[in-house]
């Protein structure tokens, strides 16, 4: 399964066949722009879940959610022209992995068996 960067490179490569280099560069920059903005949206949503989970869900899930919100917010700060801090560079890959860890934690939380409640007499 190709990762996001490979898919973007494939799309940019297909554009390059039919257009000049400036169009390819523009499409790549636009892809990086939307990637960074999507990390900000994910960070806000995960932070809202972390705040709600602090009172209603297990504490481990609230902490995982808070950590994932911080990591994805860092991915939203990737604005350098090239290198690790580029919009499709290493920091965004780490942020994407943080998002995946949060998704797996959410699945684990949802698939756990509920604890039996003793009846109060």
Features:
mainly alpha; 121 residues; 75% helix; elongated
Rounded mean pLDDT is 82
Which percent band covers the strand fraction?
under 5%
Number of spatially distinct domains = 1
What percent of the residues sit in helical stretches (DSSP H or I)? over 70%
What do you see in this structure?
- By secondary structure, the chain is mainly α.
- Helices cover 75% and strands 0% of the residues.
- It contains four helices and no strands.
- The model has no long low-confidence stretch (mean pLDDT 82).
Task: Give a topology summary.
Layout: H1 4-18, H2 21-56, H3 59-76, H4 90-111
Helix pairs in contact: 1-2, 2-3, 2-4, 3-4
Explain briefly what this protein structure is.
This protein is mostly helical.
């Amino acid at each position: 399964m190709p990762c996001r960067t490979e898919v973007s490179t494939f799309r940019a490569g297909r554009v390059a066949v039919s257009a000049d280099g400036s169009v390819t560069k523009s499409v790549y920059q636009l892809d990086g722009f939307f990637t960074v903005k999507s990390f900000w949206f994910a960070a806000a949503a995960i932070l809202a879940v972390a705040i709600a989970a602090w009172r209603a869900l297990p504490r481990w899930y609230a902490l995982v959610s808070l950590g994932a919100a911080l990591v994805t917010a860092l991915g939203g700060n990737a604005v350098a022209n090239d290198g690790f801090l580029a919009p499709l560079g290493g920091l965004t890959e780490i942020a994407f992995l943080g998002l995946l860890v949060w998704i797996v934690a959410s699945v684990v939380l949802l698939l756990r068996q509920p604890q039996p409640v003793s009846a109060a007499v």
